[in-house]
Amino acid sequence: MSTETASSASTGNHTEWMAKKIHSFVGVVPLGVYVTLHLSRNVATLLGADEFDKAVANTWSHPINYVWVVLLVYLPLVFHSLYGIMLMAKSEKTNVFKHFNLENVRYFFQRLSGLGVLGFLAAHIFLTRVHVSMGWLKGAAPAASESGQVTYGYFATHMTDFSKPTLIVYALGVLGTVYHLANGLSTFCISWGITTGKNAIRRAEIAALVFGILLLALGYATIAGFFMHDFTEFVTPSGPMAPDGFLGKLMH
Length: 252
Ligand code: HEM
Description:
disordered C terminus; mainly alpha; 3 helical TM bundles of succinate and fumarate reductases; elongated; 72% helix; two-stranded antiparallel sheet; binds protoporphyrin IX containing FE
């Protein structure tokens, strides 16, 4: 191999090494931190509609938070997802069947949950953000709250309508997110050299498992909260759940 080829190969390896480290880092900070804070705020559903709506309105009381969410959530999410899909495309997909062991099963579910979380987020962001920006919630009852955000009534109407898959989507979305984050935490520690020996790796895995169980409890308590209190059904000006926005008009 010529010196030039060897040096471009090593630059390529270094870029790949850096990209993998950044991929793992943004999965934990800021995305993991965001999910933990997001679920900790949303568990206000247990306290009732007013408390949940107040908690959401507080998040957006300062417009600068829209800038933070773009910089610390949307941008890292796009990078983490695109690079993750690229790694998935390059990886050996049948390993789990050829060599059936815990490591390979965990890695298989890490990729599967990653795809699931992407699907969940597409639905969730559509429900919480796209509807709002299309003006679909204007004049709806209960109003899209004075803060212009989605309300407890909006979620509860979707969740408790068993003719729609919302509850299943949320139950699986939270499960997939928690697995992806908790399992990702233990591999993050290895990738960043925080855990080196066998014992340290085992301890980090146990800590990640405990964290995962607590986060799952938080997520499921949030969902349960939508079933525990009275709410005013969410009705748009053009009838129950009938979209009045741009996309809604296209679909009807
Ligand atoms: C369990 C029930 C959940 C509820 C009730 C809920 C509630 C909300 C609400 C009200 C919003 C609108 C923006 C805000 O005020 O934050 C939102 C946006 C969002 N949620 Fe959730 N969420 C849940 C689960 C999740 C999970 C598991 C994830 C992680 C994968 C997630 C990620 C996001 C993202 C990325 C946004 C868009 C950020 C933004 O534009 O502000 N959510 N969610």
